[in-house]
Design a protein that fits this description.
The structure is a homodimer. Chain A is of the alpha+beta class. The first copy, chain A, has a single domain (7-16, 24-340), classed as 4-Layer Sandwich (Glutamine Phosphoribosylpyrophosphate, subunit 1, domain 1). In chain A, 32% of the residues lie in helices and 23% in strands. Chain A has helices spanning 11-16, 49-73, 76-89, 133-143, 151-160, 174-190, 262-267, 270-279, 285-294, and strands at residues 7-9, 31-36, 109-115, 120-127, 148-150, 209-214, 220-226, 236-237, 247-249, 254-260, 304-310, 315-319, 323-330, 335-340. In chain A, the strands form 2 sheets. An 8-stranded mixed β-sheet of chain A has the order 5-4-3-7-6-2-13-14. In chain A, helix 8 (270-279) crosses helix 9. Chain A is globular, with a radius of gyration of 18 Å. At the A-B interface, strand 4, strand 5, helix 5, strand 8 and helix 7 of A face strand 4, strand 5, helix 5, strand 8 and helix 7 of B. Strand 8 of chain A pairs antiparallel with strand 5 (148-150) of chain B, so a sheet runs across the interface.
Chain lengths: 343, 343
């Protein structure tokens, strides 16, 4: 059993550990958008400074895009979509362009989005030709009677809604291809039981991107997007497109986006569990997130984490891994980003 | 707004409304298995007595099969699987053999199962050639590292596990085919907006089967299986294969299987919501189920219902529709079945 170390990152603590830690914490200013790029970070010892800067640059770009969308439309769902699109378009994160490969050498993408006022939601799973799965999830929420569409059917719906189609080749990146080859090689060496259906371990076992946002009307929104697990098979779907597991939003409590070992997050309905601990157990946002994470079975290297935001602009970022690509932006546009857990 | 009439069916009330209502309620005997065949019942005025008897006969057969499995193995998960297989093999219910048709004239099946001790779970979605999807869900739970497998991939996994394959023609039944033709006709007459992706209304909009069971060791299990929605498109998936929405089990609270308007059940994470109201809100099983159902948006004709069972053998059956095909069996084998709500 690895002792679990919890990293609770409230506003002030968060500022203290980031590049902008020298700025005074704006304790009264609401956080309007929080993003994550997954809790499966590259070990600190292997992270070159230039690479770290690149991660922070894209996180900042995502935050600014979301903040700008919020400025234009005053709708939290626009901020979530805009921020996630930036991360999907980057090859750094396991979502969109940077998605990992499945066992058959294909990229199967999942995403979901939810708004907290009427608890409407949309999701897509196992899509292979949609450039921005988060936008497809949003189209399902707003332009269909359904919540979850999967596979070819989801693609037909998305293209009928004029979402951008790309060739599956668009998702090919040399780094992810290398990861698959490594996973396949390790699998062959280990000769697992037939049908064991295990995903290979990679540098980014828990890669996912997500965002939670709050708009001036007090409406919360949450979204999550992923390429899943390197070397996954058999149409495996994780928690990212599952409302209640990877994503949830309820104006009366909070908006949540999770990242981590998807199966564990589904079995524990983690996103809804945080909402329920606040709603029925009268816990604070921070208590609810910490307790929900602590309730999960421990795993070597950590099980994952989550970001959450309540209707008063309080944010919580919680993870039990070595780090989590993350950032947040306040009402006035002050950005902070971070990757590793601080001692 | 249709006024919602709640039908709370606790053991004694349940006995009173069933064919065996003349028997004294065995207040101290634990209920070990509850099944449902969906809350989308045929209107009472259209239900011939012979047809009603047929429904009750299959419900009884499912209960006896589950009870027998419990006698053999003392495992609640065996009781759930055995009971659901009987209902899947009948053409009466919208699951397995009796599954409804999608827009393209195909049958796409979904199922999930969960056990409450370690909260392990398995599910399959959009499978077309697996005779008993509940058994595939169980294979995912017990023989893979995953929770949710979908489409072709799920089938490849199931057949590698030696589950029984059938031709898609197996699922063709004249009644369901008629329902699709009627839905297509009505849709054409209404000429909906392109891409609206609405499912057609049928006699059985909320057809689903499910079971919850308790074994002598105090372990709970829950399972749900469905053919989804007549005339569904675009790879639509409802709540039945979604852990937390259609199915949940946690020994510390209860096992739940839901049926109804799947999108509403996903957006409200209904199965997990009942567990959470008990766990964090300290509600009784009955209060939790009633409150969870009442919290859903009202719909003309009702939104659906659920069965739930706690570790002491207390059962609850709740629905806001005209009826729900349902039944339960006690430790000693006393069976009760019912279809409609009593005044």
């Amino acid at each position: 059993m690895t002792p679990r170390i919890h990293a609770v990152v409230l506003l002030s603590a968060f500022l203290a550990v980031t590049a902008r830690g020298d700025e005074p914490p704006a304790a009264r200013e609401r956080i309007v958008l929080v993003v994550h790029g997954g809790s499966g970070v590259r070990p600190r010892s292997e992270m070159a400074p230039a690479r770290e800067q690149e991660y922070r640059r894209v996180l900042t770009e995502a935050l600014r895009a979301g903040h700008q969308a919020l400025g234009h439309t005053s709708r939290s769902v626009d901020a979530v979509e805009a921020a996630i699109r930036v991360m999907e378009d980057s090859s750094l994160f396991n979502a969109g362009k940077g998605a990992v490969f499945n066992h058959d050498g294909r990229n199967e993408l999942d995403a979901s989005i939810m708004e907290g006022r009427e608890k409407r939601a949309g999701a897509v799973a196992n899509v292979t030709r949609i450039k921005n799965p988060i936008s497809a999830a949003r189209a399902v929420m707003e332009r269909s009677a359904h919540v979850l569409l999967i596979g070819d059917g989801a693609e037909r719906f998305a293209f009928a809604q004029h979402l951008r189609e790309v060739s599956p080749v668009y998702f090919w990146t040399p780094e992810r291809w290398e990861e698959l080859q490594k996973a396949l090689h390790e699998e062959q060496a280990a000769s697992p039981a037939p049908g064991a259906a295990k995903g290979g371990e990679t540098d980014h076992p828990f890669g996912t991107v997500g965002a939670v946002a709050l708009d001036p009307a007090g409406n919360l929104a949450a979204g999550t997007s992923t390429g899943g697990m390197t070397n996954k098979r058999y149409g495996r779907v994780g928690d990212s497109p599952i409302i209640g597991a990877g994503t949830y939003a309820d104006n009366s409590t909070c908006a949540v986006s999770c990242t981590g070992h998807g199966e564990v997050f589904i079995r524990n309905a983690v996103a809804h569990d945080i909402v329920a601990r606040m709603k029925y157990g009268k816990r604070s946002l921070g208590e609810a997130a910490r307790e929900a994470l602590r309730a999960l079975p421990s795993e070597p290297g950590g099980v994952g984490g989550m970001i959450a935001l309540d209707a008063r602009g309080n944010a919580i970022i919680e993870f039990d891994t070595e780090g989590m690509y993350r950032g947040q932006i306040t009402e006035s546009g002050a950005v902070t980003t971070a990757i590793y857990r601080e001692p």
